UniProtKB/TrEMBL annotation:
One of its GO terms (molecular function) is metal ion binding. It holds the Pfam family Nodulin_late. Residues 1-57 form the Late nodulin domain. Residues 1-22 form the signal peptide. It comes from the Eukaryota. Keywords: Signal. This is Late nodulin domain-containing protein. It comes from Trifolium subterraneum.
């Protein structure tokens, strides 16, 4: 019975530590900003980095509409 309680407390300890670490890392992945110029330039061609709610967020660039290919009836 004591081993069950001990393992339960260990699980709670590790979960709480990981949640605290995730909260502190949020500023690393979404750094604070005032304008779009404060965000680092995007290195991915499909995304752009914009300032949204004072945090740098990756925004997907919409795909351009390509030429319409007519369907051939069979």
């Amino acid at each position: 019975m004591a081993k069950i309680h001990k393992s339960f407390y260990v699980v709670i300890l590790f979960l709480s530590l990981s949640l605290i670490a995730a909260e502190f890392d949020a500023d690393y992945f979404e750094p604070p900003c005032q304008t779009d110029d404060d965000c680092e330039p995007a290195w991915n061609e499909y995304f752009n980095c914009k300032c949204v709610d004072f945090k740098c967020k990756w925004i997907m660039i919409p795909k351009p509409e390509g030429p319409k290919i007519p369907k051939i009836p069979m």
